[in-house]
Amino acid sequence: MKQAVHFGAGNIGRGFIGALFSQSGYHVTFVDIADQIISKLNEEKQYQVNLATDAHESMTIDNVSGLNNLTQENEVMEAIKNATYLTTAIGPNILPRIAPLMAKGIAERIKSNSEKLYVIACENQISATELLKGYILESLDEDTKAKLEGQVYFFNSAVDRIVPIQNNQGSLDVLVEPYYEWVVETTETIPPVEGMKIVPDLAPFIERKLFTVNTGHAVIAYLGYLEGKETIDQTLQDEEIVKQVQATLGETGAYLIKEYGLNAEEHQQYINKIINRFKNAYLNDGVTRVGRSPLRKLGPNDRLVRPAVQAQKAGLSYTNLAKAMASALMFDFNGDEEAVKLQSLIKEKGIRAALSEVSGLDENSDITNEIVRHYDQLKK
Ligand SMILES: NC(=O)c1ccc[n+]([C@@H]2O[C@H](COP(=O)([O-])OP(=O)(O)OC[C@H]3O[C@@H](n4cnc5c(N)ncnc54)[C@H](O)[C@@H]3O)[C@@H](O)[C@H]2O)c1
Ligand SMILES: O=P(O)(O)OC[C@@H](O)[C@@H](O)[C@H](O)[C@H](O)CO
Fold it and tell me: What positions does the domain Mannitol dehydrogenase C-terminal occupy (predicted)?
């Protein structure tokens, strides 16, 4: 049986990427630090993916097992030795931490297995696999690096499926929205995986996804949080917030249409479809999950800052994006480590210096001025 090794047995790992490999005839070895999930995968060897629809359809995902990367290094290396695909859905900030073990596995593998290995990071981050490749290379000697060509391939990808935090402690089952899209950038012919779409240039796909789905999601999460809402669908019952989401996606849309020559009408349909996906009440998707890690979300290449900078360069409006960033700066949820850090940074350095440190924006730039203007208004 073909083998896939997937780092991150969380929501997207089990509910999307691992599920597609299993459905494509692969045995999936999940690698994670969560002992409870790993033990359960090895005991039960299967789980259910449940669709968040009226009909509550569900599918059984089998041929799965688990390894703990902290306590089973040798077993993880052995699994990498035998894999066709090596994927991740672990969070962009964790990639540097798992790269050394991936590198060890790859180094061992190329000594004895001449089959091709495909590495794909499935994270909400532009060029995530390219970054992961860089971290892996840091851990490889020159001799091994020279042998990678033609044997180990690294493909960037974009992943889209809303998978909320699961309210079923102790179960492996995952509730997911029915929609999904997994786009992988390559011109190679690679072993087929059901649901994987191959494109030669990922840029329009990842930017369209990140600056529509994730920008829109962030606007709802941060404004909803400020309004004391619990979930994304509840927040969307507020017509003012819906208008704000549409206005913000109008700004990212104008940039995307200009940059990639998208059809304006089709892009509007894409936006409408996404807002409808967000309204799915079965998902019960928390504003604190969607708003998680505000330092990452306010980063220079992420869903808020990058489209604003690009819009400004193109002479387009960015005031609604600035409002979204202002609301992100007010995300003071105590249960989120990055939110706590962000609030203490603001307290310590003031809003302009804190924003500049996190986003790379100049303290007195036009975009910063606009963000601070909205921040002061929201604070009132
Ligand atoms: N949930 C979604 O709707 C969604 C959709 C598209 C993309 N994504 C992206 O997928 C990635 C994962 O998101 P998620 O929602 O599945 O998160 P998650 O928290 O449900 O899963 C992450 C998993 O990684 C594991 N992990 C953390 N640190 C680790 C380490 N050092 N070594 C091994 N395992 C470790 C955790 O135990 C957890 O099981 C993120 O980049 C996210 O942006 C999420
Ligand atoms: O995963 P994050 O923290 O980058 O973003 C939160 C959500 O916007 C995200 O998980 C979406 O649900 C997902 O990207 C939908 O495809």
Answer: 201-378
> Is 7 marked within a binding site?
yes
Residue with tokens 């073909």: 2
Q: Is 67 in the pocket of ligand 1 (CB under 6 A)?
A: no
With a CB cutoff of 8 Å and minimum separation 6, the contacts of 135 are 95, 96, 99, 100
Q: Under CATH, which architecture does the 204-379 domain have?
A: Orthogonal Bundle (1.10)
Is the separation of the CB atoms in 175 and 135 below 8 Å?
no
Question: Is 177 close to ligand 1, i.e. is its CB under 6 Å away?
Answer: no
Return the CATH fold of 2-201.
Answer: Rossmann fold (3.40.50)
Q: How far is the CA of 357 from the centre of ligand 1 (A)?
A: 25
Name residues whose C-beta falls within 8 Å of residue 337's C-beta, 6 or more positions apart in sequence: none
Residues 109/81, Cβ–Cβ less than 8 Å: yes
Binding residue per annotation — 13? yes
Q: How confident is the model at residue 164 (pLDDT cuts 50, 70, 90)?
A: very high
CA dist list (Å): 285 to 235, 276, 303: 11, 14, 19
Of the CA atoms within 13 Å of residue 252, those in its CB half-sphere come to 33
Cα–Cα distance between 219 and 169 in angstroms, integer? 29
Q: What are the pLDDT digits (tens) for 209-237?
A: 999 999 999 999 999 999 999 999 999 99
Q: How confident is the model over 171-198, as pLDDT tens digits? A: 999 999 999 999 999 999 999 999 999 9
What atom of ligand 2 comes closest to residue 218's alpha carbon? 8
54: Cβ contacts below 8 Å, ≥ 6 apart = none
205 is in an annotated binding site: no
Tokens 């007195």, residue?
Answer: 364
Question: What is the residue extent of each domain of the chain?
Answer: 2-201, 204-379
